[in-house]
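Entry 0007
Protein: Alkaline shock response membrane anchor protein AmaP
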Amino acid sequence: MRQHAGALNRTWLAILGVLALAGGVLILLIASGTLQTMSSAIAPAGSPVLTMDLHAAFGPAYATAIVLVAGLIIGGLGLWWILAQIPRKNPAGKYRLHRDPASGTTLCDPSVLASAVEHQVNTLPGVVGSSALLRGSATEPDLTMKITVNNRADIQDLLHRINTGVLPDLSTALETPMRRTGIQIEVSSRNANSGTTVESTGTVIY
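Output (structure tokens):
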């Protein structure tokens, strides 16, 4: 499973929504004449929007430079937003399991723990294969798993075994509970690795 820019998109869409709402309210106030009655400095609804000479305003070289810089900034933000849409794994760096350097430091590669999780999940009834990825820190770890099962796997039993066996074992190894856990289950026609299974079909996102 990969991380997506959902939180970033929600933030930017909220900002754009507020700006669009404010702009709409301002246009309604100007069109109805309400804004003019509130402030005498506001021009009447039928008057031109701009009364200044645009050629004189944008004639100096610094005005062109300001517009160019503003355009580059807006374009850069737009490009950054587009690149943020690319799904990414963002695996965690090495976990530091001891907080006090005076008593020694233990570093653990998250891929080692992820491989142990995969091996344990692969032994569960009905599982064809799995992949695990750890993110975050040793004190606030996140785990995402993609599990492939055969079409006779008991999905509820599988989730129960993961929640009562796999995740507690990982929490014990890290000495801290998982902050977030994501499990994606896919159904395949391949044979399971072990166990007796019952009928179940579909894809489950847990």
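Curator remark: The chain has two domains: 6-84, 95-205. The chain is about 45% helix and 15% strand.
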